[in-house]
Amino acid sequence: MTGLLASIRSADEALIALHGGADIIDCKEPADGALGALPARDIRAVVAVVGGKRPVSATTGRPAPDARALREQIEATADCGVDMVKFGLYDSDAASQMLAAVRPGVADLKLVAVCFADRYDPNDLLPQLADAGVYGAMLDTHDKHAGSLTECRTRQWIAGFVDAAHSLGLVCGLAGRLRSDDIARLLPIGADYLGFRSALCVGDRAAGIDPDAVARVRRRIPTRTTNKAPRHRRMEAV
């Protein structure tokens, strides 16, 4: 069943998302690009207020200059106590090098690789993600001013990406300025979660999230029967 991922920027917003029924609380600074990172103290504050009631994810931030720096970003984010760490694959040509950095010790972390559908075709990266042992792949957009995921890729293409990710044992999420009107078209695709920020705000995505907006999105996505993160599909096959 598809879950609701709510991207928040503070402990106060985390409580709004939690009380509004979000399945995953995602720490991100929307004013700092597609995967802007929150300060470590703010991530820890979110983890504390959520208190294990929902999984918490957090982004590593802006592009790392090299594989070693990416590894350091991942470790620093994981040290905040989150359940999942999201890192961006900003350049498909450098993906192999970056994934080599996350491979050691990856079994101890739930890592989600964010692939940008408006920058490159990420389908070729999926086997590399599976080989690296990451937990999941998230399809997103990099330019938040250039339209939504459903505007830059067709529904058929998105469905193909999700199916390919699942066939390789990867948990798969969709994001990228998704609107509440997109939900009915995307739910049948069967992604493990849909990620929202803009649709949870009144006005600009950098504004605070609104309880009524969260409720509107929540009503359109059937409620999960568990508060746990989606299981890695290789684990389900065991």
Structure described in brief:
Helices cover 35% and strands 16% of the residues. The chain has 238 residues and is of the alpha/beta class.
Describe the structure.
- The protein has 10 helices and 8 strands.
- It has helices spanning 11-19, 40-50, 67-78, 95-102, 126-132, 149-152, 155-167, 183-186, 211-220, 233-237; strands at 3-8, 24-27, 56-59, 84-89, 111-116, 136-140, 171-174, 193-196.
- Helices cover 35% and strands 16% of the residues.
- It is globular, with a radius of gyration of 16 Å.
- Strand 7 (171-174), helix 8 and strand 8 (193-196) form a beta-alpha-beta unit.
- The chain has one domain (3-237): Copper homeostasis (CutC) domain (TIM Barrel), CATH 3.20.20.
- Helix 1 (11-19) packs parallel to helix 2 (40-50) and helix 3 packs across helix 4.
- The chain has an 8-stranded parallel barrel with strand order 1-2-3-4-5-6-7-8, surrounded by 6 helices.
- With 238 residues, it is α/β, with parallel strands linked by helices.
Beta-strand proportion: 15-25%
Tertiary shape: globular
In terms of per-residue confidence, which ranges show pLDDT below 50 for 5 or more consecutive residues?
233-238
CATH class: Alpha Beta
The total of beta strands comes to 8
If helices are DSSP runs of H or I spanning 4 or more residues, what is the number of helices? 10
Topology:
Layout: E1 3-8, H1 11-19, E2 24-27, H2 40-50, E3 56-59, H3 67-78, E4 84-89, H4 95-102, E5 111-116, H5 126-132, E6 136-140, H6 149-152, H7 155-167, E7 171-174, H8 183-186, E8 193-196, H9 211-220, H10 233-237
